[in-house]
Amino acid sequence: MRFLSLFAVLAAAVGFGASSSNPGVQFLDVTRNAGINFTHQNGAKGKKLLPETLGSGCAFVDLDGDGWADVLLINGKDWAPSGQHYYPALYRNNHNGTFTDITRGSGLDVEMYGMGVAVADYDNDGLPDVYITALEGDRLFHNEGHGHFRDVTAASGIHNANFGMSAAWFDYDRDGKADLVVANYVQWTAKTDIWCSADGKSKTYCTPESYKGQSLRLYHNLGGGKFEDATGKAGLQNSGSKSLGIAVFDYNGDGWPDLFIANDTQPNKLYRNKQNGSFEEIGMQAGIAYGEDGTARGAMGVDTADYDHCGHPHVLVGNFSKQMLALYHNDGNGLFTDVAPSTVLSRASYMSLSWATFFFDYDLDGLEDVFVNNGHLDPDINRTQSDMQFSQPPLLFRNAGGGKFENVSGAVGPNFKRPIVGRGGAYADFDHDGDLDLLLTTNGGPAILFRNDGGNRNKWLTVRLNGTKSNRSGLDAVVRIESASGKQSQHVHSGSSYLSQSDLALTFGLNRDPIVSHLVIDWPSGKKQTFDNVAPNQSIIIDETRGIVR
To answer: What is the dihedral of CA 247, 428, 116, 46, to 10 degrees?
Structure first.
């Protein structure tokens, strides 16, 4: 039986048995035609310094308020001056399927060894601001409008000079201002880099077990552009963590945002919001800290969603190769059960090293599907592990309902099957045709823009929120809809994935349903809005005070 089980794992990993009930949907690589020309610089020159293999992230976000998702790509740099300069890349959406590089003179053209990005309107002025994690110290950029940004890090009081990775904005005290949480990795500098080897001869990238961990940081928004470090008084200080991913979600339905932290070789953390400015860590009690074998895994990317429409958000985690994806089902009683081993998710991901991991409804059938961006750490991995490859294709799992998924990775176009050294990932409907497109980053390689094509005739509804008493970005608001196919819910969230952020607009797939009979918004302020008989195939903006404004 053990032999048959292992055969099934390996067969699924290479794509045997993959099927699709919607073969018309294809993901087409339109990077070049869209005008995106970006290559990530990791500074690698053979020294195998730890940060080289971890970056970097990306964001799909409407930075200029025109309703169209722009693209932000995070970059590294050379370790020593080389005469070459590398910057993040900002691409403005031209509304016609193409983008224009507006990095130069934007204020984001700052050289840094960047890792992750999180975007939200922290000062409620109507324009989303940008936070970038970087080795030399993270940066906060205020959006000045018209494609220009100002570095306000020093004046803001934010000082995260750690190994910052993923970050997320959320309003943890529900005071109407977006706060910031940053996942930090390990205590590392170029001077303290450790020599590690898999064969005793050549240097490899060290595992995080070689280094001490770092605590995440929580920055409380005081208003007026000022933040205070509230990590200690919020109960979040934990120097043993080695964090790579963050997800903000209300796991217990009490209306207050909680935190899931994905840790690398350390137990994952679940922080319950105590509604008094502090959190309680309950990961072990909730059954979400470890893998099914009781050990801590190499967790990277993370996302949450109510994928089975049971009314509770569940947690998806990308792990190291030969550890498989985790899908922690929220049982609604404070406990989670990893159901991935009973699905194709774990079997198909067995040989993959998974980074960006998220839910999105790619075929608009009303069920959230799963995307995973993969790639190994070490370019020489095949020399020491002959069954492992450095470049790995991404994975796409179609939600078939009833808690079941189908591996459709091989059925959505030849571009999608190409092996890459994947890292970050985000989604948005960048071309306004209703379906969700993909933006991927690769380590030391090009960014990739996949357009969702193929004649999908399912209906959809996109909802963008504008908070007034709540934070302007609508973070932590829950949107619930009901149509002929049933009930759905999504929440507005920053972060998730890996080092990346997707569009803050929520896209609901409606299958062939002719109308959204009910739409309800639970705002962080406590306000509830209800709308009836909303037409599909449109993008709407809902203001907390004025209702539907477009």
So the answer is: 120
